[in-house]
Design brief:
This protein is an alpha+beta fold. It has 5 helices and 9 strands, in the order E-E-E-H-E-E-H-H-E-H-E-E-H-E. The strands form 2 sheets. Strands 1, 2, 3, 4 and 5 form a 5-stranded antiparallel beta sheet that branches. It has a 4-stranded antiparallel beta sheet with strand order 7-8-6-9.
Length: 186
């Protein structure tokens, strides 16, 4: 039976609907899911119950034994270290759109505006701007600071010439080491 992989969590994670366990680790699994938004919703729902190491959408394993022997066991040490490092933290995306044209001043203005969010963050990384924003940043923040960050971003939208949005809490996609990625991971 083919299983969709969602993310690695600690065994006994309170929000994990269905898991395959190996020692103190568990992989959240389900039936194959064709919708990336549904996949993100499942992974994001896990964040407030404990750290989660998200698995790329569309990743499947042949069966439960493959999850244990091919996914969890070989990288158990790395998974444990990442879960410990991300405990109590979540990723938040902040998107800024400037209503005035011109990019020379945007970076400096973004730094000033985002400094209020950065004060609450353990880490941050710039994301590609894309169509929805001129500036996009990912911040790694404590779960206890989520409401403060949300309110801070809402306050940024009151600044003349700026629209600000946030998305979170998300799994820490942007704060996992890409060099250790395998076909089973982010």
């Amino acid at each position: 039976m083919t299983l969709q992989l969602y993310g690695v969590v600690r065994a006994g994670h309170p929000r994990a609907p269905r898991t395959v366990g190996w020692e103190d680790l568990a992989m959240v699994v389900g039936d194959p899911e064709p919708d990336p938004a549904a996949h993100l919703a499942v992974v994001s729902s896990l964040v407030e119950g404990g750290p989660v190491l998200p698995v790329r959408f569309g990743t499947v394993a042949e069966d439960e034994d493959a999850v244990r022997t091919e996914v969890l066991a070989p990288a158990a040490g790395t998974y444990r270290a990442d879960l410990d490092r991300l405990d109590g933290l979540a990723e938040v995306h902040v998107c800024l759109r400037f209503t005035e044209p011109g990019s020379a001043w945007r970076a400096a203005r973004s730094d000033v505006l985002l400094s209020r969010v950065a004060e609450r963050a353990r880490d941050s990384v710039a994301l590609p701007a894309g169509e929805c924003a001129d500036e996009r940043w990912a911040f790694l923040v404590g779960l206890g600071d989520l409401l403060v960050v949300r309110d801070t971003v809402a306050g940024l939208a009151c600044d003349d010439g700026v629209q600000a949005d946030w998305l979170g809490p998300l799994p820490a996609y942007s704060f996992l080491d890409r060099r250790t990625c395998s076909r089973w991971s982010w």
